[in-house]
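During the reporting period the student researcher (J.K.) took over the structure-prediction task from the postdoctoral fellow and processed the backlog of single-chain submissions. One of the processed entries is reproduced below for the supervisory committee.
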Amino acid sequence: PFTLFYNGNQKGTIGFRMKETIIQEAINLYRIKGLSFTMNDIAKNLHIAKKTIYRYFDSKESLLQGIVEYGFALIQENKKQILSSNLPYIEKLSQLLIAMPTDIASIDFKQLEPLSTQYPAVFASINHHLKSDWEPVFAFIQQGIDAHILRDIPLYMIEIIITSSMNSLLSSSDDTHTYQQSLHDLSDILMKGIIL
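J.K. obtained the following structure tokens:
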């Protein structure tokens, strides 16, 4: 299994695993309670002392930041697995555009919008990742253009469309579709527009 915090140091393995366990439980609680979950909730569910949580996260905000880093690291790992797979080019690209591992897929990113007022630094971090974590995908798209699989559209235009759309979806007022459903729609539109 992918472990975000493990650095190969056996002495620190338990600490890294505890940090990840706390984050995973916080994600589970967020699905149920939204931002109203507390450090006490996490401690109770994991049967640990609250001070154990504060050993790794000195505030709820730092825990939320840890969730963001953990979630996007999982997404990047998922993209690496897709890129190294034996899938045909078009199917691989389609999966890359909606790459969302199971741990994160059940979170509706649109519901994170309250972070913008309660925890603006965390919300800014999410926006940063949505804009900057696409380099491997853009490189793969360029390969498709070079191989005449995709239309010869300037890559910077594709970058603008993807990154701007991702950020717009995050703050969209449309409550009829989840973030993941909207992501699938965006991917479908994009794929139909760039495939030769």
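The committee noted the following: Residues 5-11 have pLDDT under 50 and may be disordered.
J.K. will present the remaining backlog at the next meeting.
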